[in-house]
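Table S2 (text version). Query chain:
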Amino acid sequence: MIKAIFFDIDGTLVSFKTHRISPAVLDGLHRARDRGIKLFIATGRQQKAAEEAVGSFPFDGYITVNGQFCFAGERVLRDNPIPPENAVQLVELLERTGSPCVFLEGQRCFAVNPDRRLELFPSQLNIPIPPTIPLREILEHKFYQAVAFFTREEQQAAGEGFFPGLSVMRWHPAFVDVVAPGGGKDLGMDAILDHFCIDLSETMAFGDGENDLPMLRHARIGVAMGNADSVVKEQAGYVTASVDEDGILTALEHFGLL
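Corresponding structure-token output:
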């Protein structure tokens, strides 16, 4: 029996075209919740941006910044910032490459090395470009994630040591999410499940990007959206329709949860 469902936001719950949850999926979420199923967000966004993206729906808890900061109500369940020594290594990489990067704190975010690539934030994600600060100044901040603008080709050409000691996940061709060593949405799931006393065998998860793979593999039922990358579809337990075809609703009905 499924008692908890985890949802990625961008490309899963929220369309890149409309920047909202469709009315049909929203109705499905309400029906699932009425059946006693706990519903959780699991996103690379930080808390404020996640809450703004999903609107007023009463999710039971949030996994944010790819599992590094998790909460239910006012209670913080996981707090795992990037260690200072790893932050220095990342800053030195950005000094060498000059690539733009966005650093996410608990509530605020900052951009460094700005160029036109940052325009992807408002155009595709409906997120304003963060204020810019000098690169070295970021070392004075406690941050949970860096969104570093390196293409897949640039990352592959640099080899395994490109982000030493850090976990790197991709869900967009233009950038990667960089978090603390061993970070991931699966660890956020564990924190949430422990708090609500729900077993991992009673879980389902939805996602579309490579940063969702730890979560999809961890859940009893991992569902890839129809618009997901091929590598995500190959490793998911079930592939549903795309976000713009209300794929979440299709999967919930397929598994008899509505």
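Notes on Table S2: The chain is about 30% helix and 20% strand. Residues 67 and 187 are 6 Å apart (CA to CA).
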